C-alpha cells in the first residue's frame, strides 16, 4: 500500500523538476535562442528579456495554472469555455506540438545539426534528408508502439550527455568569442523593437503550449508519490515548474549570448540549426561535432518518441469510440515524416501563423485559470475573454502568412484594417486590448449574475 504524504523530499522534488525539464527541452530550445542572439546584436539584453517571458515565464504559469486551478488536464481547462471549444483547442494544441510542427522540427534539426555538417559539398541533401527521416521515424514508431523503459533510459543517459557537450561548447565560446556584443549590429526587427521581437521569438519554442500538456503529467507524478491534498499538489507543481524553468532560463541566456558573440561565424546562416552547427564545428572541431551530432539526434529522437506517445494517448482518450493507440501513433509518425521533408526553414515559416493564433488563446487561458478563484471560474468570463481574443488572434494569424498571400488585395485590406484599429497590432500583440475588453465585459456579466443570485 502506497504511503500518503503531503510533502515531497528534496530528491523527489528534484526528480520531478528534471523530468519536466526533459519534457520541455527539445529542438526549439537550442535553435531559436542561438539565432536570436546572432540577430539581436548589441540589443541582445532586451531581446533576452522578451524571450524569457514567453519562453520561460508563461510556460511556468502554464504548469502552475493546472496545479492552482486543480484541473485534470488541458481538456478540462479549455472545457470552461465550452465542450466544443475544448475539443478544438486540445486538438489544435496537440497537433501543433506534435505531428504538424514540433516533431518534424526535431527530425529536421537532427539532420541540420547532426548530419548535414558532416556531409561533403557534392551531395544531394534533399535525398539524404528523406533517407534520414525514414530511419528516424521508423525508430520513433518502433519505440512509440512500445512505450516504457526506453524513454527513461534515453532520458537519464542522453539528456545529461547532451547537456555536458552543450556546457563544453558554451564555456569554450564564452571564453574565446569571435565578436564583442557592442560591435554586432542588430537586424531590422531587433533594431526597432528588440524586446517585442524577443517576445515573439519565444512563441517558436512552443513551450507555453507544451506547458498546458505537460502540467497534468507533473500532477500525476506528484499524486503517484503519495501527495493527495489539493493544496499540496498545487504547491509542489508550482515548485517543480519554478526549478525547471529557472534551469531552462539559464540555458537560454547562455546560448543566446553565444549566438551574439559568435555572430561573424553565422552571417550566412538562415536558421538556428545551421548557426548551431557552424558554431559547434568552429569551437569543437570535427570530433566534437560528431559527438554533438550523436547526442542531438538521440535527444531529438527521445523528444519525438515522447510527443508521438503523448499525442496518441491524448487522441485515444479524447475519442474513446474511435481508433486505438497504435493507429494514432502510426498516423502521427507517417505524417511527421512527410512534413520533415519540406525542410527546417519551411517548417519554421509555416508554423509561425499557427503559433500567432494559438499563443494568445493559450496565454489568456492560463491567466484565466490562475485568476479563476476571483470569479469562481465563471464560464461567462472564460467565454467573453476567449471570444474577443480569438477574433483578434485571427488577424495576427493572417498577418503572419507568407508574403504571397498577405500582398493580395483582400488580405492586405484586412491587415490594414487591423493595423488601424487594433493597438499593438504592428508589434504582433493585437490581441491584448480585445482580451482586456473581453475580461471587462465578462466580469460585468459575472457580477450581474451574482447579484441576481444573491437577490
TrEMBL record:
* Key words of the record: Amino-acid transport, Cell membrane, Membrane, Transmembrane, Transmembrane helix, Transport
- Any one GO molecular function term: L-valine transmembrane transporter activity
**InterPro entries annotated for this entry?**
Brnchd-chn_aa_trnsp_Livcs (IPR004685)
Record membrane topology: Multi-pass membrane protein
One GO cellular component, as annotated: plasma membrane
Q: Which residues form a coiled coil?
A: none
Does Cell inner membrane count among this protein's keywords? no
Q: Where in the cell is it found?
A: Cell membrane
Please list every transmembrane segment annotated in the UniProt record, as residue ranges: 12-32, 44-64, 85-103, 123-145, 157-176, 208-226, 238-258, 283-305, 325-348, 354-374, 421-445
A biological process (GO) of this protein is:
L-leucine transport
What protein family does this chain belong to? Belongs to the branched chain amino acid transporter family.
State its role. Component of the transport system for branched-chain amino acids.
Q: What protein is this chain from?
A: Branched-chain amino acid transport system carrier protein
Organism expressing this protein natively: Vescimonas coprocola
